[in-house]
């Protein structure tokens, strides 16, 4: 799937240790512009895509992603996990735009940290 719009908000980088080593993730909020009623979508980036150079509020961006839901203690949680960033260059004077693509490595459920000893019913 793909979503495009403007970067509305850049959230801080999160990191930790998992059984496969160190992990890091970052979320940004994209506001769609092509809809009559713009929507905001939080998208998560893992690994090499964290701190991407075009994660600047107001930048036009297009993101390819997968949607995944999981159940935890009777509740369902949905993640929007990006695997490619397509940034639109606005520096050109003509109306054509250039795309820069960077693919992220595939992640498994083993990359998601598991908290132990925490009195919280949320999985994150």
Q: What would your notes on this structure say?
A:
With 124 residues, the chain is an all-beta fold. The protein has a single domain, classed as Nucleic acid-binding proteins (OB fold (Dihydrolipoamide Acetyltransferase, E2P), Beta Barrel). It contains no helices and seven strands. Strands 1, 2, 3, 4, 5, 6 and 7 form a seven-stranded antiparallel β-sheet that branches. A hairpin with a 7-residue loop joins strand 3 and strand 4. It is globular. It starts with a strand and ends in a 21-residue tail after the last strand. About 9% of the residues have low confidence.
In brief:
The chain has 124 residues and is mainly beta. It has a single domain (2-111), classed as OB fold (Dihydrolipoamide Acetyltransferase, E2P). The protein has strands spanning 2-10, 14-18, 21-32, 40-46, 60-72, 75-88, 99-103.
């Amino acid at each position: 799937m793909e979503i495009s719009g403007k970067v509305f908000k850049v959230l801080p980088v999160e990191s930790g240790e998992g059984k496969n080593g160190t992990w890091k993730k970052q979320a940004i909020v994209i506001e769609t512009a092509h809809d009559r009623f713009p929507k905001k979508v939080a998208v998560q980036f893992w690994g090499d895509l964290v701190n991407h150079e075009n994660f600047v509020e107001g930048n036009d961006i297009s993101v390819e992603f997968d949607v995944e839901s999981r159940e935890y203690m009777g509740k369902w949680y949905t993640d929007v996990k990006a695997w490619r960033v397509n940034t639109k260059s606005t520096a050109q004077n003509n109306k054509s735009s250039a795309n820069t693509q960077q693919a992220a490595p595939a992640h498994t459920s083993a990359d998601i940290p598991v908290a132990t000893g925490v009195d919280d019913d949320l999985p994150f």
